[in-house]
Amino acid sequence: MRNTRAMSPSFPAVKEAKHLDVSARLHPNGKTVDMFVINRNLAQPMDCSVRFVGGSIEPNVEIATLKAATLLARNTFDEPNNVQLGRARLQGDGGSLKYSFPAHSITKLTVLRK
């Protein structure tokens, strides 16, 4: 069994975890890409530049972010808005885009390939 006390201060359950965890999927239509990003940093947003290799993207990017004020926040009947899903749009630049992933959040970016 491992000693969990020596874990990373920004994400105590995982030793030396990177702050951003990224995965993506291409829809069956071959045009739509969903990119999922988890920011494990509990205190800081992560400013990133995302580059799409092998082609360009449409400039209009849809963003959905699940976030809360604290890591242990939860919605209840008395407080139904502690964890919220925010939606936004971002302008990409050909094959890249810049975005600041909020602290301890899960973000889905949806882009269309040209």
How would the blueprint of this fold be written?
Blueprint: E1 20-26, E2 32-39, E3 46-51, E4 60-68, E5 83-91, E6 96-101, E7 105-112
Explain how this protein is built:
It is a single chain. The protein has 114 residues and is an all-beta fold. The protein has a single domain, classed as Immunoglobulin-like, CATH 2.60.40.1180. It contains no helices and 7 strands. The strands form 2 sheets. A 5-stranded antiparallel sheet has the order 1-2-7-4-5, with no helix packed on it. The chain is globular. It starts with 19 loop residues before the first strand and ends with a strand.
Summarize the structure.
With 114 residues, this protein is mostly beta strands.
Percent helix, as a range, is: under 10%
Tell me the strand percentage band.
over 45%
Report mean pLDDT, rounded to a whole number.
Answer: 84
Task: Please work out how many helical segments DSSP would assign.
Answer: 0
Major sheet, described briefly? 5 strands, antiparallel
CATH superfamily: Golgi alpha-mannosidase II
Rg over alpha carbons: 16 Å
Overall body shape: globular
